[in-house]
Amino acid sequence: MRERLRTIGLTVVSFALAIGLWHLLSTHVFNPAMIPPPAEVWRTAIPMWASGEILADIAISMARVGVGFITGSSVAIVLGVVLGRQKLLHDMLDPVIELLRYLSPTAMIPIAVIWFGIGESSKYFLIFWGTFFIVLVNTTAGVARTPIARQRAAQCLGATPLEIFVFIVIPSAVPYIITGMRVAMASAFMSIIPAEILAADSGIGYLLQKSSMLMQTPRIFVALVTICVLGFLVDRVFQFIVNRVLARYMAFVAAA
User: Fold this and answer.
1) Is 256 exposed, middle or buried (0-12, 13-18, 19+ CB in 10 A)?
2) d(CA 14, CA 88)
3) Domain ranges of the chain
4) What is the pLDDT of residues 126-145, one digit of tens each?
5) What string of DSSP letters covers the chain?
6) Could you tell me which residues come within 8 angstroms of residue 102 by beta carbon, excluding any fewer than 6 positions away?
7) Digit-coded pLDDT (tens) for 213-227
8) Structure pTM?
């Protein structure tokens, strides 16, 4: 309990320092018209929240992020497990994977629009793309780096290949998979913004684009702060679930 209160306290202090620095920079260093102070952003945000305008954009963006992230992670985990266990297949596909993973979701926007149009499928594809390779690389590494000593010890105790895979390989790979998913989650949030800016009529990215065209800088910062807060909260919820549900697997590597 004490450790949790300490963490909360440090988080509050960190945010307070960041807001204070933001205020000083916007009022004493930069032009407030270009970087509005926190108070101005707050005053702009209140009617946007009260009217429900930004809530609708948040719901749409989060739904897109959720679909793309879940599908991208699921496919990546399955393929990563296969590649981590099948060395020949890994050696054949790894060069292609390494080649493709340097194509950012932003670079894939024109292709996504051509392939899927400007509907929801193009947004799902871009978030899938931003998620897939990060989780895939981490999953493959986690499976491939399962300690040999554990596998041999299980064999000596009469474990079957399936039992070794379920009770040794997968638990050893879970910390890598979770780390990959956390990094990929940030990539998913970064992917949705350019997708909505260029090919959408709703969502937080569209709000950014619309506010930019109207030179409404405070509204731009409201959208930027919103996406940051959403990402932070989703990451904390993800960590909480992992610590509650997968704590024993996250400690599996430490027990080596």
Assistant:
1) exposed
2) 48
3) 52-255
4) 999 999 999 999 999 999 88
5) -HHHHHHHHHHHHHHHHHHHHHHHIIIIIS-TTTS--HHHHHHHHHHHHHTTHHHHHHHHHHHHHHHHHHHHHHHHHHHHHHHHH-HHHHHHHHHHHHHHTTS-TTTTHHHHHHHHTTSHHHHHHHHHHHHHHHHHHHHHHHHHT--HHHHHHHHHTT--HHHHIIIIIHHHHHHHHHHHHHHHHHHHHHHHHHHHHHS-SSSHHHHHHHHHHTT-HHHHHHHHHHHHHHHHHHHHHHHHHHHHHSHHHHTTGGG-
6) none
7) 888 888 889 988 899
8) 0.84
Instruction: Domain 52-255: give its CATH architecture.
Output: Orthogonal Bundle (1.10)
